[in-house]
Amino acid sequence: MSSIIQLLPDHVANQIAAGEVVQRPASVVKELLENAVDAKATDIKLIIKDAGKSLVQVIDNGMGMNVTDARLCFERHATSKIRQAEDLFSLHTKGFRGEALASIAAIAHMEMKTKQDQDELGTHIIIEGSKFVSQEVAVLPKGTSFAVKNLFFNIPARRNFLKSDTVEFRHVMDEFQRVALAHPNIHFTFYHNGSEMYNLPAAGYRQRIVGIMSGKTNEKLVPVNEDTEIINVQGFVCKPEFAKKNRGEQFFFVNDRFIKSGYLHHAVMAAYDGLLKDGSQPSYFLYLQVPPNTIDINIHPTKTEIKFDDEQALYAILRASIKHSLGQFNVAPVLDFDRDANLDTPYHYKDLEAETPTIQVDGTFNPFTDDKTNQHYSKASSGSGSGSSSGASYSSGSNSYSGGYSKRVEPTASWESLYVGLETESIESSPFTFENEEVTSSLFNDNEIEQASQGTYQIHKKYIVSPIKSGMVIVDQQRAHQRILYEQFLLNMTVNQASSQQLLFPLDLFYSSDEMTLIEELKPSLETTGFVFEEAKTDHIVISGIPVNITESEVSLVIEQLLTDLQDGIPASSYSQNDTIAKSMAKSLAVKTGSYLTEKEQDNLVNGLFACKDPNISPFQKPTFITMRVEDIDKKFAL
């Protein structure tokens, strides 16, 4: 019987390896950029076309390769990073497996130009599907240039699985940002379809973060710095008030390598405990330096996951360092024992006692007595006033005062007579007019209250109960409002012309480059909902008009939620775009669980729900209400 196990040809093995290494154009970008960094380049250029499907080119000024290395680098498991197995536990470079170039060359048209500084001439190699087409000597500058064209040209099934250019471009942008953030000492430039996306000169960590994200990022950053025997933590976290709903701006770098770690992310969230709103995610850019022998990088094909020897210690140090930074920069609430010195008692008054004044009062004086008594009192007081015309005496030595009235007081029968005629006196007789302001206990009049009170009740600020003939209806207030808003937005976008309210002062909203790309594509659809864009620049937009049912404070929340919902790409058809935007805006603006509603608001919500075309489910296919018949309630009591 013949053998059934055979060795695979090299080109087949390379294509299989490419399935692990190269998943999309962003994978090629990652491998080529990391190779350029390992080559000790100080200037790296990334050029792509059609989101990397047609061209991915990386040009660097690194060490370059000689003729032998240039040919050998395309062989499987050929690498300059390791020599023996022990080197895997002491890695200081990005790549080390030696499969990247061989895998890329197996599924694309590849062109390489390389030259070392001491050589006069360089090497120019062209490969198509693992086959060497040509190799010749050329006059080249120092460094290496890789150009990958027509990705997956010989695997059409894999090419069909690629997403739209918008989605693929965002993945490329993510990989570029990760490498550029990890190496601020390198000058990076990025071009897409001939347009310059980034030009990042060599700088510090803060400048690199601000250059990649946006101009307003600088005021959001809080520095973190902690140095211990097992880990060195540097970087920045953002202030809690700038937290977002998505996790796009969260970066961990271990020994200058981007990683993903849910365990370390939990440590960051623990440091923000009590500072964030529900569902908000903080932004952070943290650079961790650990001994290479305490981590294992080779546990995932994409090398974005790392195994640590002592995760618990790293967790505690990271959490404590971030919490310390937030408290140090007065971001986190702390006990404040400082007091206002102006409220303290002056020293020269501290031992002095206040003198209690003595007051003499004539207990026999009565202003409501008749005129004779008042005259008698006036004479008596004037006689004892030591010549004072006012009948008053003051003794400075004893701090005593006695006073009397010499003014004639008109006699009154009784004190009640002072208020006679006030009820009948007309207001018009007075030279002054006063606004008659009636204080009421409700914002609505009695008729409106009677119309609004339809027997609706709110339970736990979540459900609205409304009686019907057969029993009662229990409505989920958040889902019901989502359905109402969704149909309103969809109607405005497809049938009616949405109305806008002009802002007195335009809004300036800042976003990162990839978010600005999404907003540019969504502008036509957003304008149909009522948004008016005055201008859109590279890092921010200016909004001068908003839909009538959105407040100015809700604009940033609506757009942020929309960007979060469209992370996986914008639908191709206009109807799908409108549907997605209407759902996202309804989710942002709907009344939330835990909000108190007045009886009138409850009634309007119930009536609005049952006026919808499809009141049974929310835009996200969840039931909006349930009904309970009287018979069902009777059965509960019959048990």
TrEMBL record:
InterPro entries per the record?
DNA_mismatch_repair_CS (IPR014762), DNA_mismatch_repair_MutL (IPR020667), DNA_mismatch_S5_2-like (IPR013507), HATPase_C_sf (IPR036890), MutL/Mlh/PMS (IPR002099), MutL/Mlh/Pms-like (IPR038973), MutL_C (IPR014790), MutL_C_dimsub (IPR042120)
Organism this protein belongs to? Flavobacterium pectinovorum
Q: Which GO terms describe its cellular component?
A: mismatch repair complex
Q: Which keywords are on file for this protein?
A: DNA damage, DNA repair, Endonuclease, Hydrolase, Nuclease
Q: Which GO terms describe its biological process?
A: mismatch repair
Q: What does this protein do?
A: This protein is involved in the repair of mismatches in DNA. It is required for dam-dependent methyl-directed DNA mismatch repair. May act as a 'molecular matchmaker', a protein that promotes the formation of a stable complex between two or more DNA-binding proteins in an ATP-dependent manner without itself being part of a final effector complex.
| Protein name, per record | DNA mismatch repair protein MutL
Q: Which SMART domains match?
A: DNA_mis_repair, MutL_C
Region Disordered, annotated ranges: 360-406
Q: Where is the composition biased (Low complexity)?
A: 377-406
SUPFAM superfamilies cross-referenced by the UniProt entry: ATPase domain of HSP90 chaperone/DNA topoisomerase II/histidine kinase, DNA mismatch repair protein MutL, Ribosomal protein S5 domain 2-like
Q: Which gene encodes it?
A: mutL
Protein family: Belongs to the DNA mismatch repair MutL/HexB family.
- Pfam families in the cross-refs: DNA_mis_repair, HATPase_c_3, MutL_C
Query: What superkingdom heads the lineage?
Result: Bacteria
Q: Which residues form the DNA mismatch repair protein S5 domain?
A: 209-327
Task: List, in alphabetical order, the Gene Ontology terms for molecular function in this entry.
Answer: ATP binding; ATP hydrolysis activity; ATP-dependent DNA damage sensor activity; endonuclease activity; mismatched DNA binding
| Residues of the MutL C-terminal dimerisation domain | 455-597
